[in-house]
């Protein structure tokens, strides 16, 4: 026998009452993607292009120039990280020279969500082991008496964890 007793019954049936799981998981997120980057290194090139592309595709991305007013505190930045689904740290030669970036990557790793690293003109092993351009930044941090050594250790650990994730390695083609 036939399951449908009348023709057209399938068309009249109501949509499923519960939304698909992804919709439920998205509640509470303000941003699809959080871009963590060192402004002087990549903002005017790669990061701006990536942000424009994401916007074009309908992906809501947090980028500090758009979403963070000058003078807003790190707590607000951490709140934006908490409200993001996916993280894209753009590791560049000067990334570890910025305490903001180091605080961001530490919070990002703590969130235990999807991280898609971009290694922009740096080797992933330099990020993992704080060698190459990352070594000099950490040497300065260790030599600075005002720097909290426990915090530096957390930053190093966060870079190690993020540097172990497969991502994209790009050469700086802008010279």
TrEMBL record:
Residues 13-22 have a biased composition (Pro residues). Residues 29-163 form the TIR domain. Residues 1-23 are annotated as: Disordered. GO terms for molecular function: NAD+ nucleosidase activity, cyclic ADP-ribose generating. InterPro entries: TIR_dom, Toll_tir_struct_dom_sf. SUPFAM superfamilies: Toll/Interleukin receptor TIR domain (SSF52200). Its EC number is 3.2.2.6. It is an enzyme of class 3 (hydrolase). It catalyses: NAD(+) + H2O = ADP-D-ribose + nicotinamide + H(+). Residues 1-10 have a biased composition (Acidic residues). GO terms for biological process: signal transduction. Keywords: Hydrolase, NAD. PANTHER family: TIR DOMAIN-CONTAINING PROTEIN, TMV RESISTANCE PROTEIN N-LIKE. This is ADP-ribosyl cyclase/cyclic ADP-ribose hydrolase.
């Amino acid at each position: 026998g036939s399951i449908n007793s009348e023709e057209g019954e399938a068309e009249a049936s109501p949509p499923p009452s519960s939304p698909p799981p992804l919709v439920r998981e998205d509640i509470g997120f303000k941003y699809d993607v959080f871009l963590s980057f060192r402004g002087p290194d990549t903002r005017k090139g790669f990061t701006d292009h990536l942000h424009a592309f994401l916007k074009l595709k309908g992906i809501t991305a947090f980028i500090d120039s758009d979403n963070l007013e000058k003078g807003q505190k790190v707590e607000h930045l951490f709140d934006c990280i908490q409200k993001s689904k996916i993280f894209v740290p753009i590791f560049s030669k000067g990334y570890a020279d910025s305490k903001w970036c180091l605080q961001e990557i530490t919070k990002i790793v703590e969130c235990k969500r999807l991280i898609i690293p971009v290694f922009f003109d740096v080797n992933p092993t330099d990020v993992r082991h704080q060698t190459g351009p990352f070594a000099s930044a950490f040497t300065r941090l260790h030599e600075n008496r005002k720097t909290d050594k426990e915090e530096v250790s957390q930053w190093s650990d966060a870079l190690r964890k993020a540097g172990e994730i497969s991502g994209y390695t790009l050469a700086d083609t802008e010279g």
